[in-house]
Amino acid sequence: MRLPLALCALALVLVPSAVGQQAAVVVIDPGHDLRANSDTEPIGPGSATRKIKDGGGTSGVVSGLREAELTMRVSLRLRTLLEAAGVRVVLTRARTAGTSMGNIGRARIANRAGAALFLRVHADGSTDSSARGTHTLYPALRRGWTDDVYAESRRAARVVQRDVRAALGFPDRGLQERSDFTGFNWADVPVILVELGFMTNPTEDRLLATTAYQRRAALGLCRGTLRFLGRSPSTCG
Ligand SMILES: [Zn+2]
Question: pTM of this prediction?
Fold first, then answer.
């Protein structure tokens, strides 16, 4: 009876990892909120350098849509997709209704949840209206702040950038390391920030303001997240 024994051994190997996968929590952070927050906070634990909590984000040059609302719409769609794939989701905010909590607060939500990924959803703005494309930011390596999450964050950025770019079809602006992001430096879990596209570019703004492109963005984020978690991206639909 060699086959059943082999199957038993296989089951023993597979069951613990399946249980581990089901416990995965993803914290989705829709960028900004209704109101900016000009209070300051240290950019990392123990740092004397302080930065404003939230400048308020950008808005659509044609659509007039606010970044805070675009990121909320995409994040709510993403939550639905991830939950349908069996991932537990925590949102840092579920409405665009208040003063932005700032970035230490957002990171603490992810830390407390023990997130497998802290996924920050943003859209970009520029004084140059021709600037366009999708890019993904992740923490630069700094001992004591990000050394525990650097490698996994970089891996997540690589995987998610590829899927979001493919889903939206915008130009590929690649990856960028940042040492000055408060929400990165306070994170004790893998963290990335996806800039879906430029709301100051008429083409990308028009597209991102549509339900179809918000669905595409959510789909790309879902696929990349599942791939990062070692799961099949096809579960996203
Ligand atoms: Zn933003």
Answer: 0.90
